[in-house]
Design goal:
It contains eight helices and eight strands. The protein is of the alpha/beta class. β4, α4 and β5 form a beta-alpha-beta unit. Bound molecules: D-xylitol-5-phosphate and zinc ion. The site of zinc ion has 6 residues, from β2.
Length: 231
């Protein structure tokens, strides 16, 4: 990639381990293993928007007490507005909804702010950035999916690097650069995270790349990569 789009976002570089790749029989322990990570990425799946079911607000609430970190809740749910209050009550900090799953996306994003949470919007790989242009001034973060949502451990779709860069440029043109974070989710590993950062992302979700092996060490390695971009 010719041009590097660095320094994006408002919160700096963040690692957000996805607990979808954790051992569910000891979820609390798995959350404690990643306490050096800034965010905890919580993948909520309803079996309708995506072909998989994970967990709901009850389970999330029970692990909330294991961590003081920011809970970044990725709602892969049809019409997530029906459940946002439950997740806010259970301790969500960021509520991220899919543009494809909301009939009235603008209203749903306002609902999130009214609940006192940060609002984020996610896009599936096939969805155009144009679908969110008119709500970009209402979000704290955009999540670019770099796999089709539903499962951990999939391969990063290379074309998504160009999409991340186009989002960065769109934010810059709209005067929103530095006000909106760009999160990337799916297939991000230590081997490709640099290209994701150089495309313009500043929040990195990693499931299998954190939980395969030693989670503490893996979080540290992602932080070491971030340091290279902080000087
Ligand atoms: C996929 C989820 C991701 C996933 C990431 O639908 O949204 O958060 O768990 O896992 P890896 O990093 O293994 O692709
Ligand atoms: Zn996710």
């Amino acid at each position: 990639m010719a041009e590097k789009r660095l320094g994006g976002g408002k919160t700096g570089y963040v690692i957000a381990p996805s607990i979808l790749s954790a051992d569910f029989s000891k979820l609390g322990e798995c959350v404690k293993q990643i306490k050096e990570a800034e965010y905890i990425h919580v993948d909520v799946m309803d079996g309708a928007f995506v072909p998989n079911i994970s967990f709901g607000a009850g389970v999330m609430g029970s692990i909330r007490s294991c961590s003081k970190q920011i809970f970044d809740v990725h709602m892969m749910v049809e019409e997530p507005g029906r459940y946002l209050a439950d997740f806010a009550k259970a301790g969500a900090d960021i509520l991220c909804v899919h543009a494809e799953a909301c009939r009235h996306l603008d209203r749903t994003l306002e609902q999130i702010h009214e609940l006192g949470c940060r609002a984020a919007v996610a896009l599936n790989p096939a969805t155009s950035l144009e679908n969110i242009r008119w709500v970009l001034n209402k979000v704290d973060m955009v999540l670019i999916m770099s796999v089709n949502p539903g499962f951990g451990g999939q391969q990063f779709i290379p074309g998504m690097l160009e999409k991340i860069s186009q989002l960065y440029d769109m934010l810059e043109t709209m005067g929103l650069q530095g006000k909106v974070d760009i999160e990337v989710d799916g297939g991000v590993k230590l081997s490709n995270v640099s290209s994701v950062i150089e495309a313009g992302a500043n929040i990195i979700v990693a499931g299998s790349a954190v939980y395969q092996g030693t989670p503490q060490e893996n979080v540290k390695r992602f932080h070491q990569v971030f340091e290279e971009y902080c000087n």
